[in-house]
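Narrative of activities, Objective 1.

The group set out to show that a structural description can be obtained from nothing but a protein's sequence at a throughput compatible with the screening campaign. Below is one input-output pair from the validation batch, recorded exactly as produced.
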Amino acid sequence: MIEAVNNLYKLLLRNCFLFFYFTTCLFVFGQQDSATSTITLAPVILESTKLNTPRKTLSQALTIYDFGDRQRYHQQLSLQEYLRQVPGLFTLNANNYAQDLRLSIRGFGSRAAFGIRGVKLVVDGIPETTPDGQGQLDNLPLGLIQSLTVLRGPASSFYGNAAGGVIQINTLSDFEDDFVRFRTQGGSFSSSNLSATVGLKNNKTKAIFYQNLSQSDGYRDHSKYKQQVFNTRIWHDFSSKSKLSFQFNYTNSPYAYDAGGINLQSAIENRRQARPQNKSFQTFESIEHIKTGLQWEKNFGKNLSFSSYLFYAYRDFKGRLPFEFGGLVDLARDYYGGGVVVEYKPKEYHNIQFRVSFADQTDHRKRFKNIAGEAGDITLDQKELFDNKSISLLDEYRLSFGVLRAGLRFDRQQLGTNVVDRKTNLNVVNYSLGFTYTDLVDHIFFASFATSFETPTLSELSANPFGEEGFNPDLSSAQARNFELGWRYNSFFGQLETTLYFIKTKNELISYELEDFPTRTLYRNAGRTNRKGIEVQWELRKKAWHWLVAFNYGAIEFDNYQLEDKNLSGNKLPGIPQQQFFASSSYNFSNGWGIMSLNQYCGSIYSDDSNQNKISPYFLSNLKAWKSLNDFEFFAGINNLFDRKYNDNIRINAWGKRYYEPAPMRNFYFGVSFTL
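Output recorded for this entry:
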C-alpha cells in the first residue's frame, strides 16, 4: 500500500506543474482584456461554526482579523505573526523550523514538543489537522493569508477532536482583475524570502498560483533551514447556485536543523550555541508534503443547501534525534477524508444543519540507531492506524430578544498498530448549548456550555516509555467541560469583547523526558486540571489609524496530579504564561507611507510540573514601515527593537534542566514587491 502511494505521489509531483501550465494557458486565452490589476478583499464570512451566523450573535469567544494590504508587509516567517493579537492564544518556537510553531489556546496544546495539539486547524475549508489531532504549519502559504478566524474554547460538538478551539485560515480569493506579483525579502542571519503570485479570472472561473522559496542560516548554531511551498486554488461557478473549488499544496523542506534545548548556564555563556549532542548526532528534519482538496456547494432555493468536501494528503518525514537507539526516524504518513453537510431552514428564524464526515490516517513509522548521523540497525518498524467517523447536528433558533444554539456530535474512533492484533475503539458524544442576548442593540451578552475531547496522537502513543512495540498502554484521551460568559460592545469608540471562562479537564496530557532517553519526548496523563480566566480584545479604526489591544489572564492549575511520591495538585500548568498583553497601532499617510508598532508582554512561565523553575517575564517591541510607489511597495521591519533577552521556546520537563531555546536579539528585514 505504502509503495503504491509513494508511486502515485511521485507521479503527481512529476506532472502537477505540467497540468497547471496548461490550466494557466486556458485561463490566459479565455481572459477579457483588463487595464488594471487591483485586488479587493471581501468581507470576512464566519464559517467556523458551520452556520452562517453574524459574529455579534455567536455564543462563543471569537477573534476575526482581516489583514488586507498589511499582509504584504509581514515578514511571513511563521503563523505567529498573524496570531499575536488573539487573547488567550500563546505561541512559541517560531525560529526552530525543525520543531515547528507551538501553539496553545487556554492551555490546550501546551504539552506539544512540536506542532499543534488540541487545536483544530482548517485552511480554506479543508482540515489541515490530521485525523488523530496533530497539526503541522510548515506547509502553510503564509504569503496568501487574507484573514483568519479563531474560535477559542472547546469545539468538539462542531469539529470533533478540538479541545482548545479552532483556527480557520482563509487565503486570498477575492480579486477583480488578473495580476502578477513578485516579492523579495532579505534580513538578518542571511535569511531570504522570494515569492511569486499569479491571479487569473474570467466570467465563471478564477485561479491563484503561489510559489515561495525561503531559507536562513538561523540565529543559533546548527539551526539553518530551507523550504519551498507551491499552492494553488481554482474556483468554477457552474451557476449562481452551484460552485466547485480545488486546492493543491506541495511543500519541500530538504533540511531544517535543530539546535536543541540548553540549560541556564549554557544560555548565559553563549545564547547562540547549540547543544553539543545535537551537533554530534546531526539532528535535523526533512519533509515532503502534498495535499489536495475538492469542495462542492449547491443551493436548492432559499431553504436548503448542500456542501461536500474530499481531501488527501501525504507526508514523507525523515529526522535525526540526539540519541543513538531509535534516534533516526523515517515516517510515511497518508491521510484522507471527506464530509457532507446539509443545511435546512424551515423558517426564517430557524436553521438546522446535519453533517456526516470521515477521516482515515496511516503512519508507517521506522526507527533506526543514529550512529553519528548515519542509520544503523532498525529498532522499530510498525504501521499505526487511526480511523474516525462522525455524525453531528447543529440547531439555531432566533428569538425576538436573542439566539439559541445547540450542537450534538457522535465520534467513533478506532486506532491500533500492525504489531498488536487488538484495536482500541473510542466512542465519544459531545454537546454544546449557547444563548446570545441581543435586545440591547450595542450591547451583546452571551453564555455557553460545551464538552470536548482530545485523543493522544499516533506520534505520542508510539513514544512508548517501556521501549516496546505498539502503543503506550497507559495513555488515555483527555476530556473537558467549558463554561463561558461574554460581553460584546460596538460603538464610536470601537469594538470590545470580554470573555470569562471556567474549564475542568480530566486526564490532562503532559510531556516529559526520561534519563535513559534525554530529548525524546514522552507523554503521560496528569489527572484533573482547572482553568479560570478572562480575555479582552478591543479594536478601533479611525480614518488612517488602526488600534488593537488584547489581554488575557488565566489561572490554569493541576487539580489532582500525583506523580510517583509527589503531590503536584495546585501547581501551575507548565509551558504557558498566566498573563499576556498585546497592543499595536498603525497609521497610513496620504503619500503612501505607513508605520506600525507592535508591543507584547508575556508573563512568567514554569518549565516543569513541579514548578521548581520559573522563566522570567519579558516585553517585546517590533516596528515596521512601508511605502507604496506606483506598482512598487517597499517595506522594512525591526524585531525585538530594544534587544531583550528572552526564549523562543521552553522545553517542558526536559531532562537535565535543558529548558531553554534562546530567541534572536535585535534583528532586521527589508524587501520590495512589484505588482503587474
